[in-house]
Amino acid sequence: MKTYACKSLVGQAMLSLALQSLVHPSFAGQVSTCDTALRQLIVAPLHSIAMKKENVRVALEDSNDGVYSVRLFVAADSPDNRDKYVTIGWVNLDTNTMKAFDVTDDPDNPVTLNVDVARYRSYVDRCLPRQRRRALLSGRV
User: Fold this and answer.
1) Which CA distances in Å does 127 have to 17, 51, 64?
2) Which secondary structure element, helix H or strand E, spans residue 94, and what is its range?
3) I need a surface site. Which of 4, 68, 99, 139 has the fewest CB within 10 A?
């Protein structure tokens, strides 16, 4: 039996969802549902974006103390681009304050995004690691 280790909470959450989908068919669509929910949460309030919003994809890349870094990227088919995508921006989801910040242009002076708070809470509850969900539900957020 192989053992896999993930150092980041995001990696652990994604691995957990993937393993649950193998055991419980009812979880099979949760990963894609979470990807869609994250995309809807982040992309809709972006104002200074040169790309068509429908072409923008998002991915959780890292987390630190309840702040999740989200990479915004688009398809870019070029011989110099091995993974066929190019990063066009970054957004930080601060689940401690339930705010989202566009840090693309200036990480030291982020732009606060006007996200749908109910959608944000729903995303945190359904898609982020269990410890974060417990804190949210207990009112510590």
Assistant:
1) 9, 26, 16
2) strand 85-94
3) 139
Structural contact between residues 80 and 52, judged by C-beta atoms closer than 8 angstroms: no
List pLDDT tens digits, range 41-70.
999 998 777 888 899 999 999 888 889 999
Distances (CA, A) of 47 to 7, 100, 113: 34, 13, 9
pTM of the entire predicted model? 0.69
d(CA 87, CA 93): 17
Quote the CA–CA distance of 132 and 60 in Å, as a whole number.
15
Angle formed by the axes of helices 117-127 and 30-43, to 10°?
150
